[in-house]
Design brief:
Layout (H helix, E strand, L loop, with lengths): L1 H11 L4 H27 L3 H10 L1 E2 L2 E5 L3 H12 L3 H17 L3 H25 L21 H19 L4 H24 L5 H28 L2
Antiparallel strand pairs: 1-2
Helix pairs in contact: 2-9, 4-8, 5-6, 5-7, 6-7, 6-9, 7-8, 7-9, 8-9
């Protein structure tokens, strides 16, 4: 009976309840969206939407040439690197080392488990679905693995949301908390959009990556908050 009582005490805490409810709703909603996208993708129901949006981002009659000025391609190529393996590993490692230095080893372990778990889920779900990359338009950056879900979209969502929620939880100012979560969401959004613009992912790959990553990050945050509450 100890754990249910602790859970009731946590959910009844007026200070934590709104955040807990919001995180739970985000987790369940994102998980449902991911399941729905994956199901429709496997049935082939998303093909028209995917192809139409990919072609809309290319010059009419020239699938090798993206819309917009030349510098826009460079901007999206730079943005997509923020969701690459090197950038995300470096950011996560620096954050974990910092947390250990200031004595917050529990938070450092939380970041490690959340991010590494996200990587593993992304890797094995890609293998499970084995969806080929889009061949309708030219790839503007190099890719060499499967398409669904987008690893850049999913793992960037996991990493930036994990860090954003962790930092937000330590702030007393609501404006700062909202800003940190906004930055995490903005980075995740731009990285996902860059993958479609660069022609290396279908839109549903990115939507699936966003939803899976958000569900995992929010689920990890909920577990962390419950664990902290149970220690009091």
């Amino acid at each position: 009976m100890t754990r249910p009582r602790r859970l009731l005490r946590w959910t009844s805490n007026e200070k934590l309840e709104p955040a807990a409810i919001a995180a739970f709703c985000a987790m369940t909603g994102s998980a449902f969206l991911y399941a729905r996208i994956a199901s429709e993708m496997l049935k082939g129901e998303t093909s028209k939407f995917d192809e139409a949006l990919l072609l809309a981002l290319r010059q009419p009659g020239a699938v090798d040439v993206p819309i917009g000025p030349i510098w826009l391609t460079k901007v999206f190529a730079d943005l997509t690197s923020f969701g690459g393996t090197t950038a995300l590993c470096l950011i996560s490692l620096l954050a974990i080392v910092y947390l250990y230095i200031i004595g917050k080893r529990g938070d450092g372990l939380f970041v490690f488990l959340s991010v590494s778990g996200g990587w593993l889920i992304s890797h094995f779900t890609k293998l499970g679905f084995a969806r080929p990359r889009p061949d309708l338009v030219a790839h503007l950056v190099e890719v060499n693995d499967f398409s669904f879900p987008s690893g850049h979209a999913m793992v960037s969502a996991v990493t930036y949301l994990t860090l954003g929620l962790l930092l937000a939880g330590s702030q007393s100012s609501s404006a700062v908390r909202y800003y940190l979560v906004f930055v995490a969401l903005l980075l995740t959004l731009l990285i996902g959009i860059s993958r479609v613009y660069l022609g290396v992912h279908y839109p549903t790959d990115v939507l699936g990556g966003w939803s899976a990553g958000a569900a995992w990050a929010c689920g990890c945050w909920i577990i962390r908050r419950w664990h902290l509450s149970s220690q009091r």
